[in-house]
Structures are given as structure tokens and as C-alpha cells.
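ok trying this again, last paste got cut off
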Amino acid sequence: MGHRKPIVAIVDDDPRLLESLEELLESAGYATASFSSARTLLATGLVDVDLLITDIGMPGIDGFELRDIVGKARPDLPVFLVTGRHEIADQHRAQCISGFFRKPFDAQALLAAVGEALRNRKEEGKHDS
């Protein structure tokens, strides 16, 4: 039996960014699940998700709120935040996040960070069992 591909959930209200992130991640060998809002992701559930990439500036539940909700439900789940709004990027709560990317972001840097976060998560899982 083969290993399943890691699933990266992407939440963004911009359909073009969702599509480009899907293509980027799938070309790197990841499975993706895309959502146009945090509510849609939360309604679907986080059970199979291995990493989450979310936009910060979204209507309804924003990326910071989603990260906090996910952090309570799945504290082991890596969450990356992206934003095109530089005033958000400069806020203290954005700067203390390891997986933070300002649009337009470097695709290779994002893929490297995703790979590292998933490897770290896998290593931690081995130590827990």
C-alpha cells in the first residue's frame, strides 16, 4: 500500500489565488482542498488536513481568527498565513508567526516551508507513538 499524499487545505476568497496555490502545491506532490471561506473549511472539518494555508483578509472569519480556532481544535496542525495587505503584514501578531507570507510570495520559499513543516510534524508524530 502506498503512502497517502499530505493534504494541504487552502482558504482564500480570491479564486485566482486558490487556483494558483492548488497548481503549485499539486505540482510539488501534495493533495489540496480549497475553500473560499473559513466557514466552509470548518463545516467540512479538519480531520484529514495536514497543513493549512489561509489568507488573512477575508470577510466573516479572518485568517487570524481561523488560526486561533484551528489551534484549539488541532494544535498540531501547521497554519500558514498569507496577505497582500502590508498594514496587516506589519502588525505584531503577524510578525510572530513562523509561516507568514506576504503576497506576492516566493513560490519556492512557500514550498520549502510547507515541506519543512510537514517533515517536522511527521517527526513529532514518530516521537509521540
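PB: full thing came through this time. The radius of gyration is 14 Å.
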